[in-house]
Amino acid sequence: MPRRRRGSRVSALEDCREDAAAPAAAPPVPSATWASGAPQAAAAGEPVLLRGIFEIGRASCDVVLSERALRWRPIEPVRPEGESKLDLMCDEEFIELKNIFSVKLKRRCSIKQRDGTLLGITLFFCLKKERNKLKDAILDLINLSEDHCDVWFRQLKKILAGFSNRPQSLKILLNPQSHKKEATQVYYEKVEPLLKIAGIKTDVTITEYEGHALSLLKECELQEFDGVVCVGGDGSASEVVHALLLRAQKNAGVEAGRILTPVRAELPLGIIPAGSTNILAHSFHGVAHVVTATLHIIMGHIQPVDVCTFSTSSKLLRFGFSAMFGFGGRTLALAEKHRWMSPNQRRDFAIVKALAKLKPEDCDISFLPFNSSQDLQEKKAQGSPTSACTDQWQMVQGQFLNISIMAIPCLCSVAPRGLAPNTRLNNGSMDLIIVRNTSRPEFIKHLKRYGSVKNQFNFPFVETYTVEEVKVQPRNNMSKYNGEAGAEPQETASEDSFPWNIDGYLLEVASDVHVRLHPRLINLYGVSVEDMNDSKVTCNCL
Ligand SMILES: Nc1ncnc2c1ncn2[C@@H]1O[C@H](COP(=O)(O)OP(=O)(O)OP(=O)(O)O)[C@@H](O)[C@H]1O
Question: Which of the chain's termini has less CB crowding within 10 Å, N or C?
Answer without folding.
Answer: N
